[in-house]
Amino acid sequence: ExxxxxxxxxxxxxxxxxxxxxxxxxxxxxxxxxxxxxxLAEMYQLEVTxxxxxxxxxxxxxxxxxxxxxxxxxxxxxxxPNNPTGSMxxxxxxxxxxxxxxxxxxxxxxxxxxxxxxxxPLLEEYTNLIxxxxxxxxxxxxxxxxxxxLADQETISGLKKVLSPFLLDVFSEVVITxxxxxxxxLLLRTD
Length: 191
Fold this sequence. Notes:
Layout: E1 3-6, H1 9-20, E2 26-31, H2 35-43, E3 47-52, H3 61-70, E4 75-79, H4 91-100, E5 105-108, H5 112-115, E6 129-134, H6 135-139, E7 147-150, H7 153-162, H8 170-181, H9 183-187
Parallel strand pairs: 2-3, 2-4, 4-5, 5-6
Antiparallel strand pairs: 1-7, 6-7
Helix pairs in contact: 1-7, 3-4
C-alpha cells in the first residue's frame, strides 16, 4: 500500500499538489529545477523559495538546512539526479533534510535508474518522504506516459482519493505487465 500508478509524472505531481498544498502556501525548490514545478507553483499561487546550486553544481545542503531552520514550508521538491544539472544527493544528505523538514519532501527520481541510486529504503523510516518515478523515462517509452509514486500508506491512501478511478487504460496495463516481465533485460540499457 505504498504505491500509486498513473498516466505520467505531470498528472501524478499535480495530484500530489492537490492533496498536499493549499493555495497561497509555500514551496522550497532548487534552482535550476524541473520546469513543471514552477508551472504548478503558479497554478497554486505558491510563494517559491529557490535555493541555488553551489558554483560547482554541488547540492546546496547547508543552504537548504538553513532555510528549513529559519522558515516554514508546505512542501519541498527536488529531482535526484537534478534535472537539468545531473547533480545528485546521497541518502545521508537526504536524511538530514528529512529530519529538518516539517513538511512533505518530494524527491523526483525519474532519472535515478541511470544514476544507480534510489532512496526507497528511507521510506520505512521517514513518513514525510515521497518518491516519484517515471516508467516512461526509466524504460525509454515516453509515449506510454506512465509513472508511479512511493510513499507512506497514509499519503498513498489520500492520493488515491484525488486520482481518477479510471486512471489507467488497458494499453497502459499491458505495457506495465510487459515492462515487469522483461525488467532485468530492459534495465541493462541503463548501464
